[in-house]
Amino acid sequence: MPRSPEGVRVELVVTSGTFSLDGGTWEVDNNVWIVGDDHECVVVDAPHSAPAILAAVGDRRLRAVLCTHAHDDHVSALAQVCDATGAAAYLHPADLVLWERVLPERSPDRLFADGDVVRVGDVELQVLHTPGHAPGACCFHAPALGVLFSGDTLFQGGPGATGRSFSDFPTIIDSITTRLFELPDETVVFPGHGAATSIGQERPHLREWLDRGH
User: What is 9-212's CATH topology?
Assistant: First the structure.
C-alpha cells in the first residue's frame, strides 16, 4: 500500500453484510480504507462491522469518517464507530436524501463541499463531488500518495451502478470524464468494492461503457 514520506499509509479492511434499496437486498463485501500514520487516521466509509473497523484503527486518534455516499452498505457501522471514537462524520449535503433513510436519528457532523481538503498527518485528501451513483457521491484524491478513493463511482471495469433510485448514468459518466479522468494515469484507484485499478487502466474503456449503457 502507498506510504507518504512522513509515514501516512493506506490500510484495507473488508467487511461483509447487505445492501438494501428499492425493495431489494443483496449480499455485499465492502472495502474500508484507513488513511493515517501511527498517531491519527481517517476512515473512508464505515460499513457493516464496527468492531473490525475499530480494531484496525487501534489506539490511534480517529479524526473522521469520510462518507463516499450514504447507501446503507457504506454507513451501517458509522454511528457505532463515531460514538466509540468521537470521530466526526462527513457527508456531501446532496446525499442527505439517502442518509436520512438509514440514519434518521442523527445528522452528519460536517458537510463536504467540492474542493474541500481533509488533512491527516502530512497528507491532504481533496474532495471531488462526483454524482451519478448517488447525488452526493464523493471521491477523495490524495496526490501525495498517488491514490484516489473512488467509493462506488469508478471500479475496475467501469462506473458504479446507476439502475436504482437517485442514480443516473449520464451523470456518472460526466463525473468520471470531467473529474476523475483529469487525474494522472498512474493514479491508483481504491474503490468501495472489489479490486484496485488505475486511471490509466480505465480511461481507454470509456467507449465500451457508453456503448453498453452501464
Answer: Metallo-beta-lactamase; Chain A (3.60.15)
